[in-house]
Amino acid sequence: MKTLAYRHTAYPSAWLAGVCGFLYSVSFVLIARASAGLGGGLSGFFLLAGGILGASALIGLYLRLEPAGGGYALWALIFGLAGALAAALHGGYDLANSIHPPGQSTTLPSPIDPRGLGTFGLAGGAMLAFAFLIHRDASFPRNLAYLGYVSGVLLVLIYLARLIIFSPSNPLVLAPAALEGFIINPAWYIWLGFVLRRAA
Questions:
Q1: 10 Å Cβ neighbour count for 189?
Q2: Is 1 inside any structural domain?
Q3: Is residue 18 in a domain?
């Protein structure tokens, strides 16, 4: 029986994760300003979908890096999947609240993903680890690793900014979030998709 090549699932997942990441940013930053309900619902949906698709892409990346990366690749995958799952759960939570708004608003952190611990913090750590492993693997473009380093640092900064400053409209929160969400993260995932499309 012919073995299924997971890359055929991984590379379109990476492309779609990049698209979802961009559309999440559009919904959260732009659409929500005009319509909080619509923006909240769309951003929740794209965060949910992006988390699932991102997890699929990271599994494909792990399979490419594992022969040389060993346990370090597994470490990156575990944290990456944790971040992706947290993002999916956070998105599902926001989507549910958008469809059926709770009786009263609250500023308490999400019990699923407090201040983006998983979506930004764990994902940033995983991105830095994957970037390090990509940098060591000659079969990957060197610039993909550099872009991953930038993305990982921005994700960690976003988490720290949300944790300490809290207000998403503060420029110290908004600037790295906009750069990561509109440009860096979508570009990294889409580029990763093209890399994974090629047979190892």
A1: 25
A2: no
A3: yes
Is the CA virtual torsion 141, 159, 95, 85 positive or negative?
Answer: positive
Task: Give the model confidence (pLDDT) of 48-103 as tens digits.
Answer: 999 999 999 999 999 999 999 999 999 999 999 999 999 999 999 999 989 988 77
Q: What tokens does 162 get?
A: 């949300």
User: Which tokens go with 145?
Assistant: 């690793």
For residue 129, the enclosing domain spans 9-99+111-197
What amino acid occupies position 192? L
Q: What are phi and psi of 141, to 5 degrees?
A: -65, 135
Tell me 103's DSSP state.
S
Q: Are 141 and 150 in contact (CB under 8 A)?
A: no
Domain count of the chain? 1
**145-183 per-position pLDDT tens digit:** 999 999 999 999 999 998 898 777 788 888 999 999 999
